[in-house]
Amino acid sequence: MVQVKEIKDSNKLSEIYEIWEKVFGISRTVHNYDISNNYIILYEGLKEDTPIGAALIKPSGEDCYIENLAIIEEKRNQQNGEFLLRFAVDKGFQSEFHKVYAVTKENQGGLFEKVGFLKTYDDKIQQNMIKYEINPENFYRKCNH
Length: 145
Fold this sequence. Notes:
Order of helices and strands: EHEEEHEHEEH
Number of domains: 1
Strand content: 25-35%
Radius of gyration: 15 Å
CATH superfamily: Gcn5-related N-acetyltransferase (GNAT)
Largest sheet: 7 strands, mixed
Number of helices: 4
CATH architecture: 3-Layer(aba) Sandwich
Structural class: alpha+beta
């Protein structure tokens, strides 16, 4: 069993930072807590036994970005990433953002497309990266299938 939890207390972010360090190699010293962001953690177990994934929802005007979506290696390909992504997108729309965006490497977009994201053009992103977007209508319609 997995469960997702939003972390609002900056003192409780250490598990999220540990996941990002394992998956991306991002040192904890790089992270700056921002109260406007939503920090999300995915646990395995009934009592939040083992943190296995994390993500960040970052506001950008009337829209938001999902960043640092990560699942630890041994828990990938078990629908954990999709569960975490769907939760993050839903949280973004519940927070009344108009669109949710994500930027990922070209070869890692399948998960976003599966959830209903569409590729969008942005000349500000670096080469070999793709920007995706989703609006509430496309997301909730895709959830019904």
